[in-house]
Amino acid sequence: MMMRTLRLAFLASHGGSNMQAIIDSIRSGLLDAVPVAVISNNSGSGAAERAARESIPFHHLSSATHPDPKALARAILDVLTETRADLVILAGYMKKLDPLVINSFRNRVLNIHPALLPKFGGEGMYGINVHKAVLAAGEQESGPTVHLVDEHFDRGRILAQRRVPVLPGDTPELLAARVLAEEHIIYADTIRRIGTGEIDLGFHFAD
Ligand code: GRF
Q: pLDDT of 115-134, one tens digit each?
C-alpha cells in the first residue's frame, strides 16, 4: 500500500527533545513525515527555539493568548485543520487537550509517557514524579509508552513500549535519562509504523 508522507503537528511545553528526535529521524530518512506546526503554551520554551531553528511554523497558544478555554481549543483546532495535520504529536505537552480537539482528531493524537503504562500514569504522574514513584515501588524495569490520547490522562490505547532496567543505586534523574534515551527511539519508530500501516489506527492516511 502506498502511504502519503505524514503531516505532523507538535504540541510541546518545554524542551522538545522528543520533537527534535522525530525531526532528526525525518532528516535522516528513517521517517517519511513532514512537521507542519509546533504549538506551545510557552513562547520561551526549548520547543519554540527548536521550531525557529528548523523553520517550522510556531504558534504560541495559551490561556494568555486565549483566556477563554473554548476559544483556545478552537484556535488549536484551527492550526491543526489549516495545516492539514494527519497526526497530533504531544511531546511534553503539560496541558490537558480540550475534548473538541480530541474528538476532531480521534485516534490521531499521540502522547509519550515515561513509564510502562498502565502503571505510573494518571493525574500528577508527570516529569520526575513518575521516576520517583517507579523507584519507590521497587520496580525492576521501566521505559516509555507511546499511546493514543483520549479524555482520560494516560489511558488511551497503548501503541508501543520499550523496557529499560532499573539499576542499583538509581536516582530519579538517572532513571529519567535512561528512559528518555529510549523515548527518542520509540516515538519516531511508532510514527513510522503508523505510516507503513503496521500499526492500524483505523484511519486511512492515503490521499
Ligand atoms: C518526556 O519525559 C516525556 O515522556 C514526557 O515529557 C518529557 C518531555 O521531554 N511526556 P521533551 O520536552 O521531549 O524533552
A: 999 999 998 999 999 999 99
For the chain, first and last CA: distance in Å?
Answer: 12
Say whether the peptide bond before residue 144 is cis (omega within 30 degrees of 0). no
User: Can 147 be counted among the known catalytic residues?
Assistant: no
**Which ligand 1 atom is nearest residue 17's CA?**
14
Choose the residue to mutate in 183, 184, 190 for probing ligand 1, maximizing ligand atoms within 8 Å of C-beta.
183
**Pocket of ligand 1, candidates 41, 109, 180, 184: which has the most ligand atoms within 8 Å of its Cβ, to mutate?**
180
Q: What is the pTM of this model?
A: 0.95
Please, which residues bridge with residue 88 across strands? Answer: 9, 109
CA diameter of the chain: 52
Residues 6+ apart with CB under 8 A from 23: 35, 50, 54, 56
pLDDT digits (tens, 9 = 90+) for 179-188: 999 999 999 9
Q: Which of 59, 60, 66, 113 is catalytic?
A: 113
